[in-house]
Amino acid sequence: MNEKQRLEMSQIKHGDAADRKSGQDKPLHEKTTEDFAKYFQTTFQPPNINKARKRYREDIEVHYDFEIPEDMKHIGNGKKFLIQTYGCQMNEHDTEVMAGILNEMGYQATTETEDADIILLNTCAIRENAENRVFGEIGHLKSLKVEKPDLILGVCGCMSQQETVVNRILKKHQHVDLIFGTHNIHRLPHLIKEGMFSKANVVEVWSKEGDIIENLPKSRKGKIKAWVNIMYGCDKFCTYCIVPMTRGKERSRRPEDIIQEVRHLAAQGYKEVTLLGQNVNAYGKDFEDISYRFGDLMNDLHKIDIPRVRFTTSHPRDFDDHLIEVLAQGGNLLDHIHLPVQSGSNEILRRMNRKYTRESFLELVGKIRAAIPNVTLTTDIIVGFPNETEEQFEETMTLMEEVGFESAYTFIYSPREGTPAAVMKDNITMEVKRERLQRLNDLVNKQSAESMKAYQDKVVKVLVEGESKRDPDVLSGYTEKNKVVNFKGPKSIIGQIVDVKITETRTWSLNGELVQNTVEVN
Length: 522
Ligand code: SAM
Ligand code: SF4
Fold this sequence. Notes:
Bound molecules: S-adenosylmethionine, iron/sulfur cluster
Radius of gyration: 24 Å
Number of strands: 21
Helix content: 25-40%
Number of helices: 15
Distance between the termini: 51 Å
Strand order of the largest sheet: 3-2-4-5-6-7
């Protein structure tokens, strides 16, 4: 689909200045979900496992022709923007893209809400509490909007891809000017123009997600580490997860575009890139003209002169032997793999639609450890999936120990409307779920602290990122295995990879002292 067709498909709605919703046929407070559904009529599709395969066959177009419209190029001169980001690295990186676009329009970043002429909330829909925080913030910003009617307030990101959320904002938070989805980021200049000149509220949410827009400007957060998207979307349809709906189908960027971006970052002096995707190891599955998978990409990035290449997140299902073989080469491919397992129970994994078993997961871990003996493994775990029994939860605990995960992001299952799990019966009380989470977290803490102890008196390579948040006299950075290290040293080494001898180990961090000629920890 080209830009013209996209414009025709756009779901922009205008009101007038006196009553921003008065162009509609009934007062807003009388509207129902059906009235708002038209915004999604041609585009909205609820998540559906059977449709996933169909999505796969749709064409993917890559565009290299992004431009800020001439009349919007200086519209932000002398004005400021603030983007508040919720959720994962993908959202952090989308924020960098939106900041890049706004900078090219003349806007400057601010951290003060009162100074901002544009405020965007880049939202996360993965769990209910993330959504609640955003609604709280939208509420807080109302008084500012009343004080500064020219302020443009926008809600974007994953929440905006949900019909119910858009309905709720339109109905209850009429001070929001823009609502746009994850597939509409490149349309930001047009949306701002709509919001500015028509003084109407603008809704643009596409579910058509086949395209990849290259050459979007980016204002990266720092000069040391950078995010690089390698693919978008997800076709896995885990039954608890909203991502396939909010991010669309799996589609990979062309290898040459990724390699060029990483080369460019290396030339600019960046020391580390993190490749981003919901399942980075599904990379390339959607290419019809070439046979090129994640292992091939890592192999090519291994040859680039950038000290550290990380990736997140990998799905156990697509972790193939070629990838393991390539990662085993080491060098700039770091020996830390984040491999979300979600549960240790086969029955729960089946109901989650994860498409692997405890046994096949352990087999994969065995293969990885055989090829990369010093590998650090970390994971994501959900507790309290509907009807999870005590025995099933115990299986997660034993798997955590058996694999020897050094850390884990742990979550209580949060029902997400539109996902298959949300309609599953659940007999487990929140009290039991909280108690299980506590037990799991105690185990995670114990395993993390144990893994840290191995570093006592060892020397590690640390990419120094800056001053520690707690103490400006202390520098802070990450090891190759992603452990935080705090130590004293001159500010001049910020941005460098230095050797640090570990003098004290804690549960989640290491303290050390800067050394000169040393060997790396194994
Ligand atoms: N694509 C990655 C994968 O499959 O492992 C994960 C991406 S998701 C943004 C990050 C984590 O959020 C998941 O690994 C899962 O543990 C958690 N998560 C997703 N949906 C959830 C839900 N409905 N309730 C609780 N946790 C959830
Ligand atoms: Fe969500 Fe990850 Fe499953 Fe995709 S693979 S549906 S992003 S948990």
